[in-house]
Design brief:
The chain has about 375 residues and is α+β, with helices and mostly antiparallel strands. The chain is built from eight helices and nine strands. It has helices at about 15-55, 60-85, 90-100, 110-125, 130-170, 180-225, 290-310, 330-335, and strands spanning about 1-5, 100-105, 230-235, 245-255, 260-270, 275-285, 345, 350-355, 370-375. A hairpin with a 7-residue loop joins β4 and β5 (about 260-270). It starts with a strand and ends with a strand.
């Protein structure tokens, strides 16, 4: 825009407001579209904090609030950009220009728009190809078109703002400051999102602490019960690390002080403090006969099961607490097979027994055959 006369012209209030709006709106349009980045980032950050530190569920209301802000800001961006763009081509603006005797100056975007359309067309054609390199080239063309589009929009907004400000200077009007509006546009959704997420975060924290207290009671009760008869006990301590799924208590039983051959029980406890899974591992000594191994296995299973029941912790199904006995089918197949043959037997819908070993060719001093018993709650 070129100012041809150095005079101050008298405008009515409506014309002054129009000039101020046209000075302000292009800057606000850029603020609206750029503010969508921190809005999206804040929603992601708050969801991560709630999930990672407080293990809360996805907060749909917060996500929709963020999406709502982004939708409103997109509309506001369009309005703040299109309104002055169209207004500067209307009769009222022409009247203002005639009063101040200035002319409009704008960049020619035809070449840039042609480049954008060309990149989009090329990307569309390349995307149809089965060649991976051409598909990558299509992505690059899309990215270039997006960058050029943003540059064109920003350039158009700058042109509108520059023309409006020069008219304001020619008329002796004070150019409105956009800083306070930009701060509101950027910070308002951030503060509102934080305020909206505070209650569910507090609720999730309370629920997590309550679950920790309940699960800890059961875990410590199992620990005490196993310490009465086991040589070693290991626990996932809820007080040390919260798990939104379950915790495991393990009891290790050795048959003598000089050997690591023995049995182990693994008990899984959920956040309601109930036992949801039990499985046993009993190691086999191939140096003794099958009958002795079966007898020791039965003794170990009954001893570990007795400790489990003495804990006083309830299970989601009584089947998990029943005395564990090896199925007859498994006993028969174990007696008829060698120590180097694996065996798997399923009894009913909730008991699975497996004998794990190495083949005779692979068996060495590192091999540790064992019987694995998995008990699941009945449906």
């Amino acid at each position: 825009m070129e100012i041809v006369k150095d005079e101050i012209y008298i405008l009515n209030e409506q014309e002054k407001k129009r000039i101020r709006r046209y000075c302000l709106f292009p800057t606000l349009s850029q603020a609206f579209i750029l503010a969508e980045i921190p809005v999206a980032g804040m929603v992601i950050l708050l969801e991560m904090i709630k999930d990672v530190f407080f293990h809360g569920d996805t907060y749909i209301a917060g996500i929709f609030l963020g999406i709502g802000f982004m939708a409103v800001y997109t509309v506001a961006f369009s309005v703040c950009l299109v309104l002055p763009h169209c207004g500067m081509r209307g009769a009222k603006w022409e009247k203002i220009l005639m009063k101040v005797n200035v002319s409009m100056q704008e960049r020619d975007y035809s070449a840039q728009m042609s480049a954008i359309y060309g990149a989009k067309t090329a990307a569309s054609m390349l995307r149809r190809s089965d060649n991976d390199n051409r598909k990558k080239a299509a992505e690059a063309a899309d990215a270039m078109a997006a960058v050029e589009t943003v540059d064109a929009v920003v350039g158009a907004a700058d042109d509108i703002s520059r023309n409006a400000k020069q008219v304001a200077v020619a008329c002796g009007l004070e150019i409105p400051k956009a800083k306070k509006y930009v701060l509101v546009i950027v910070l308002l959704p951030v503060f509102l999102l934080i305020a909206v997420y505070v209650p569910p975060v507090i609720s999730a924290n309370r629920a997590m602490n309550a679950q920790i207290a309940v699960a800890s009671e059961s875990v410590y009760a199992l620990q005490l019960a196993f310490e009465d008869g086991c040589d070693s006990v290991m626990i996932d301590d809820p007080q040390e690390r919260y798990n939104d799924d379950s915790y495991t208590v393990s009891g290790y039983l050795f048959r003598n002080a000089s050997s690591d051959i023995g049995a182990t029980v693994y008990v899984t406890v959920d956040n309601d403090g109930a036992i949801i899974g039990v499985h046993y591992m009993v190691y086999i000594d191939i140096e003794v006969d099958k009958e002795e191994n079966l007898e020791m296995t039965g003794t170990d299973l009954r001893e570990l099961n007795s400790m489990l029941n003495n804990s006083g912790v309830e299970a989601i199904s009584d089947d998990l607490m029943d005395t564990c006995e090896l199925p007859e089918e498994f006993v028969t197949r174990f007696q008829e097979s060698s120590y180097y043959e694996e065996i798997s037997v399923k009894e009913g819908e909730n008991i699975y027994v497996h004998y794990e070993t190495d083949t005779e060719e692979d068996y060495d001093e590192h091999s540790a055959p064992y019987i694995y018993v998995l008990i699941k709650p009945k449906n």
